[in-house]
Structures are given as structure tokens and as C-alpha cells.
Amino acid sequence: MQYYDPKTLAFLLNDVHNLEDLLKEERFSFFDKQSIELLLDAVKDFSDSSLFPYIKEMDEKPSVFKDGRVIVHEQFGPVLEKAGEMGLIGAFMDEKDGGMQLPLMVFNALYFIMEAANNHVTGYMGLTAGAANLIVTFGTEELKQKYVPKMLEMKWSGTMCLTEPQAGSSLSDITSSAKPVGDGTYSIKGQKIFISASDHQFSDNFIHLVLARVEGAPAGTKGVSLFVVPQYLVNDDGSISDYNHVDVVGEFEKLGQRGYCTNHLAFGDSGESIGYLVGEENKGLTYMFQMMNEARIATGRMGTGIASAAYYASLQYAKERPQGRKLQSTGKKDPDQEQTLIINHPDIKRMLLHQKAIVEGSLSLILECARYVDMQLISEGEEKNNYHLIAEILTPIAKTYPSEAGKDAVDTGLQVLGGYGYMMDFILQQYLRDIRIISIYEGTTGIQSLDLLGRKVTMMEGAALKLLAEEIEATIKTAMSKEELKSYAITLGEGAKLIETCLGHLMPHAMKGNHERYLADATIFMDLFGTVVIGWQWLKMGIAALDQDESFKKSKLHTLEYFFKYEMSRCKGLQKTTCHDSDVTVKMGVEMF
Predict the structure, then answer these.
(1) Taking Cα atoms as reference points, which of 251, 259, 203 lies closest to residue 52?
(2) pLDDT given for residue 331 in this prediction
């Protein structure tokens, strides 16, 4: 059973995003194209044997809460152990900190393979990697030495604890408290909900990264601090000591991703929970944004992986399912003809192209975003800052487009199967349930859209937007010299101008202080912006495809043609909606509902 295309992944890494140029840099010089290929093959073999065969079973036998502990599917034991042995947890981290110093672009490619195989698994690994990297970046040497090595071996797990029952996504309203004990540690008390991968039988300790307020801290996000709060305290020699009273209150029963546990945690209820300050007091949210941004890209990548698996499942069905007959030149069907496979029907081809265009465009964007972070790591001065700005403006799009469009792609895949798609015998219904959470994880689509329009577009007087526009314009310029791509280059330029038109219409509202009106249609603007960005990715793929073998080239150019006909054509309507004078959502009173 296929769940992704290795040839397309290699094409994106090598031909579209120029991995070999990155490997020439000193930071990544340990690797070459051949070693990366071996690593990709190893992860594919691991995914084929240990991940994909268990995805349905993990849904049918979900994680459960029993006697104060969470019990997950037994396959997680060997999977997490093997991932630790392979060095997959902190592979992108510096070698001096226990990582492989792998390009983040390759790290994301590896995790995409695993997520396409089984999206219930990688969250356990990815959260541990993000937590370890945050401790390395902002924690003391003592914290690093005490916790990170065993986290990278996957013997201990890491989490991020932000959300609270009364606050939801509003981190300015968290109430978890941190009281100084007097020895440099803090007594942590509070409730955290929707905490993924925060307890199971295959980890000896859980290292929670907790946002809380020190007594007397300023109100709002400026008064939030970050703490390492282990489930069990750790002795100086690295051995586990006393229980730290981080209690699992319960397990949330979910619509999808049922093998990926999500818990409610209580700190300091059954006894004192000791926390260790990361960095300085009241700067916790600043530190946590490193992990949150990593998690946003990872969430978009996970959505891409699920959509990829759904595409190949529906493609296989379409190639095997006979139904109906092709229309004759007379416009009628010949009942004496044998039934044709449904993949021969134009509407089925449209649905498959829809899935393919979204999956491959999303994957290209994820790798593009990671590449800018890699370039930031190896650059200095103004160039470093420029790469940082482009990564910043792309991050909310890399989270949102694969989750929203990916959800639509999976739904379309289910439609390919017709009635069978709705049945539990086929996996499309599971993929639809699994991907539904992706647009909610790590900040909902609405929050990402507010971030894009309210912060990223305007940051440094539009510097990030300008830099991204220059990147898109450079691709357009190259494509204009290719006869096969010229019309698409023109269309992409028109799409970019629609974004300018929207901002020209919206900015006066912001300048007048009418911020609610300025941001009211941020989600519509995100849809427009994301579609144009994916159009940019497809134009880049089109340029690179011209040098490929004829069959591969045709496949990519046909998919590009689909995207520009069916998806880029939506942009004018999105611009019209965004620029409409109506402010119906602002003026609609609650009493009118």
C-alpha cells in the first residue's frame, strides 16, 4: 500500500529546493546526497514495517485512562524505542547537544514519511524533540545535562503545557501559579488541558514545559514564565527520584487520532509540584514561541501526511473499481460495453487531481519554510534577518493551508470511494476523522489568520511581505522565459496583485484604529494568501519539472494546470469578499442570532 511518492519527495528536496546547495554549507557538510537518500530509505523501511501496518488498529484500540495512568497501543513501545535508536528525535539539533545537525528540511521530510504512514505516532516524538530543543536554547547547562540526553533517546518524553480550562487559546488569561520556594525552584499549581502525549506506559518520565505566573507578575502575556516540571524529580546522577505530583486527571476521547493520547493534567493538587525556571521570569511566552512555531510547521506537515495517505488510498481504489461506461461520441453509453474503471471518468480525475495538487503543493511549502529556517542558521547579519522574516510570514500559512485544504482533499478522497468511503472497512473515513483536528492544533485557523494579517503582514513596516513578494517575483521572472509556463506566471502575478489590492482596502481601517473591521475577514484573506503561495510553489515545481523525464514532467505539469484552473481562479472571488464594504460580521449583534 502506497502512502506517499518517494520520487516526488526526492524531486522536491533536490530539484525544487536545492538540497545539495545546502549540504555544501559547513553546518551540514557531514551529509551528502547519498547519505540523505540512505536516511530517507531507512525511515521508509521503518514506516513500512512498524508504522503503517498499525494505523487502523491504533484507531480501533485507542489510548485509555485507567487507574491514574494512560495506556496506549502496545506497538508504541518498539516504535518509540526504535526512533530513539535511529536518532530521529533531535536529528535537527546541534551535534554538541546530542543531535545529528541534519538540515531541518530533511528532518521534515523524514517526519512527513512517518506521518503519511501513521499520523498517530509522530506527535510523541515531535513534542519531545521540541521540548528538548527549547531547553537547550533557553535553559541552564544543568537543565540541559539533566533532561535532554534521555529525551533524545526517547526514554523520557517532553510536552508543552499551555492551554487551561478557563482560558483556551487566550494565553493572557492563564492562571497557573508559580511560587518561589527559596532554593531557586518554584511550587507550581494549576490545571492544563489538551496536553498531547503527556502520559503513557512506554516512557519512564515526562518532562513538562509549563507556562505559569510568578506571584506579583504583570497581567497579560507579559507576566507569563516558563518552567520545566518533570513528572518525577531527577537526582544529580540522572536517576529518577520522587513523584512530583503531576497528576493525570483524565484522557480526552477524540473523534480521530485516537492512538495519540490527549490528557488533562493537574499540577500541585495531590502534593507539591516543583518547577525549574527556564530563562528569566515573565519571558516565558517569548521562549515558548520557538516550540510553538516548530509545532505549527509540524502540524501543517502532519496534515500533509494524512492527505497524502488519503490520496494514495483513493487513487488505488479508483484504479481497481469498475463502474459505469464511458460516453460515446454520440453522447450515449453502450450497455454492451464492459464497465470502465472509475479513474477513466473525468470527474474522478478532477477529484484525484484536486488531492494531488493540494498534497504536493503543501509538501513543497513545508520544505520551503524549513529551508528558510536552515538558511537563517547558516547566515549572518541582514541576510540572516531576511531569511527569518520570510520564515515568519510563511509559518502561519504552512500551518493553515495543509490543514484546511488537506481536510478538503481527504473529504474529496472519500467522495471518490462513494458509499464505500463512508464505511469502516475502508480507511478514508479514518483519515477524515484524523485530519479534522489539524486546523485546531497549535492555534486554530482563525488565530493563524489573525497572526498573518494582524502581525506578520505589518511587521517591520511590511518588510516580511516585501521580501516574500521579491521571492515570488523572481520565480515569475524565471517562468516567463519558459513558453510552457508563461501563462501561469502571468496568472500568479495577477494573484499577487490581488493581495496588494486587499491590503490597500484594509489598511485604512487599521490606520483609523478600527482594528476589528481590519481583521474581521482575516480568514478569507488567509485563504487568498495561502492559495497564491501554493501557486508559487507549483510554478517552482513546474520550472524544475521541465528537466525531468517525460512521464514525470507530464504528471507535474498537468497537476500545475489543474491548480491554476481550479484553485487560482478562486482568488478573484476571495479578493472581492475581502474588499466588500459590508461589515456584517462586526455589526451583527448577539441578540440578532
Answers:
(1) 259
(2) 63
Tell me the sheet residues that pair with 229. 208
Nine-digit cell at 187?
511550587
Banded pLDDT at 170 (limits 50, 70, 90): confident
What residues form DSSP beta bridges with 66? 69
Contacts of 22 (CB under 8 A, 6+ apart): 28, 103, 105, 371, 374, 375, 378
For residue 447, give every residue at least 6 positions away whose Cβ sits within 8 Å of its Cβ, in sequence order, or none: 169
Query: What global pTM score does this model have?
Result: 0.96
Contact 324, 347 (CB under 8 A): no
Residues in the chain: 593
Kindly list the distances between the CA atom of residue 73 and the CA atoms of 82, 198, 264, 276, 303, in Å, as whole numbers in the listed order.
16, 15, 19, 32, 22
CA–CA gap between residue 310 and residue 429 (Å, rounded): 9
Residue written as grid cell 521530510: 109
Whether 380 has a pLDDT exceeding 90, the answer reads yes
50 pLDDT higher than 80: yes
Helices 486-511 and 522-545, axial angle in degrees (round to 10): 160
- pLDDT mean across residues, the chain: 96
Residue of 354, 361, 481, 370 lying closest to 413 (CA atoms):
354
Confidence of residue 329 (pLDDT cuts 50, 70, 90): low
Q: What is the DSSP letter of 269?
A: S
Distance in angstroms (rounded) separating the CA atoms of residues 560 and 530: 16
pLDDT score at 172 = 82
Say how far apart CA 111 and CA 150 lie, in whole Å: 20
Task: Indicate the DSSP class of residue 341.
Answer: B
pLDDT of amino acid 324: 86
Nearest Cα to 162, choosing from 198, 136, 132, 194?
194
Q: Could you identify the residue written with the cell 510568578?
A: 214
- Each residue of 59-81: b (16+ CB within 10 Å) or e? bebbbebeeeebbbbebbeebbe
Tens of pLDDT, residue by residue over 56-115, are 999 999 999 999 999 999 999 999 999 999 999 999 999 999 999 999 999 999 999 999
Nearby residues of 355 by Cβ (< 8 Å), 6 or more positions away: 307, 310, 311, 314, 315, 409, 410, 412, 413
Half-sphere exposure of 377 (CA within 13 A, CB side): 20
What gap in Å lies between CA 586 and CA 195, rounded to an integer? 33
> Which residues are known catalytic residues?
442
Which residue type, as a one-letter code, is found at position 275?
A: G
- Cell of residue 141, nine digits: 547547562
Whose CA is closest to 90, among 150, 146, 175?
A: 150
Lowest mean pLDDT among 13-27, 159-173, 330-344: 330-344
